[in-house]
Design the sequence.
């Protein structure tokens, strides 16, 4: 396929008989089905008809897009989409990223890469479609640090569970709690008579050293988050909210930016999956447990932060404290924790959108 240097006019396409024919077409939206080695591209005109199909490597897409007139380029919000989206934005195009679950209903029968690209382009034309904001490189870097930390925490949990199992098989039962396990393992290893000359004793020493190394790496990442919070104004404002420390603040800023993708605070709570799941029919509303949609990592951090902040906030003589005391009197504590996490998420949205600091005396965010 041969493309002209000047955008917007005609393109030369080879048909099945290898004869060259030229026709004029106007591409208004391009859908790209991303892949590690091969990407499928579908171009739609103003009527929604597919007028272009291509397959190319990811590295050739920016050069291909530079030959197109400014148009809408749609992709699924997957790995590599934000980086490519920034490159295409520099070429003058409007980039729209969508969640894959919102694209799936537009895929026709006999799924393949070409139809996926066509479905992406078609989904991006819908006026009610919800789009994902492009993340900056700094946001992606902070997200990468959080993902590495999450993996290290899971590895540490796996290691401590394995330690408990090894000791349990030898008749040593240790109470729940990481600190109790650490104290018990140190005491057992300090006892020279405990499993003397046994290979498992050396194995326990090796597992303990691995545990120490994981703790060191996790603490180093936590320190990086603290330093980032001190330097960044948005994370400092978020850290002023009870239950949101450096870890939560950096994760929120990395995922939300300035929260401009959410028109209302309730939209953020729904995106995080900490609102009731609705299953209504026949005009009868039915609300179930929380939906657990969206970002599981952020939802977990917010719930843990709310659980830690609940005692002090419930004792405070503020409107938020009175609300929590009334809720605790009639609902289970875990339900109150999730409700508080939703409240903190909404306060975080207001803090990011308005650029103000949380005011503890009023337990709210000023409007000015």
Sequence:
């Amino acid at each position: 396929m041969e493309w002209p240097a000047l955008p917007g006019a005609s393109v030369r396409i080879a048909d099945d008989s290898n004869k060259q024919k030229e026709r004029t077409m106007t591409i208004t939206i391009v859908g790209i089905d991303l892949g590690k080695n091969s990407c499928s591209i579908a171009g739609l005109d103003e009527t929604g008809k597919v007028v272009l199909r291509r397959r190319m490597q990811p590295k050739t897409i920016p050069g291909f897009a530079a030959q197109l007139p400014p148009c809408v380029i749609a992709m699924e919000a997957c790995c590599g989409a934000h980086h490519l989206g920034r490159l295409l934005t520099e070429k003058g195009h409007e980039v729209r990223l969508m969640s894959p679950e919102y694209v799936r209903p537009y895929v026709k029968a006999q799924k393949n890469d070409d139809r996926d690209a066509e479905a992406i382009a078609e989904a991006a034309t819908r006026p009610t479609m919800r789009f994902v904001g492009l993340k900056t490189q700094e946001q992606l870097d902070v997200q990468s640090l959080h993902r590495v930390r999450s993996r290290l925490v899971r590895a540490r949990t796996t290691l401590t569970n394995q330690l408990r199992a090894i000791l349990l098989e030898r008749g040593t039962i240790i109470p729940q709690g990481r600190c109790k396990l650490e104290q018990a393992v140190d005491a057992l290893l300090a006892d020279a008579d405990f499993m003397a000359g046994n290979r498992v004793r050396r194995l326990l020493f090796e597992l303990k050293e691995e545990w120490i190394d994981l703790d060191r790496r996790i603490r180093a990442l936590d320190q990086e988050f603290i330093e980032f919070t001190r330097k960044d104004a948005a994370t400092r404002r978020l850290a002023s909210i009870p239950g949101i420390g450096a870890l939560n603040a950096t994760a929120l800023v990395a995922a939300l930016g300035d929260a401009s993708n959410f028109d209302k605070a309730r939209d953020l709570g729904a995106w995080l999956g900490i609102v009731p799941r609705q299953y209504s029919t026949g005009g009868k509303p039915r609300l179930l447990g929380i939906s657990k949609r969206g970002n599981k990592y952020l939802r977990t951090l917010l719930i843990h932060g709310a659980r830690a902040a609940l005692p002090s906030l419930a004792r405070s003589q503020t409107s938020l404290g009175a609300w929590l005391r009334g809720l605790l009197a009639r609902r289970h504590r875990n339900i109150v924790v999730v409700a508080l996490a939703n409240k903190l998420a909404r306060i975080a949205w207001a803090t990011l959108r308005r650029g103000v600091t949380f005011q503890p005396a009023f337990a709210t965010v000023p409007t000015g």
Q: What stands out?
A: Residues 1-24 have pLDDT under 50 and may be disordered. The longest strand covers residues 50-56.
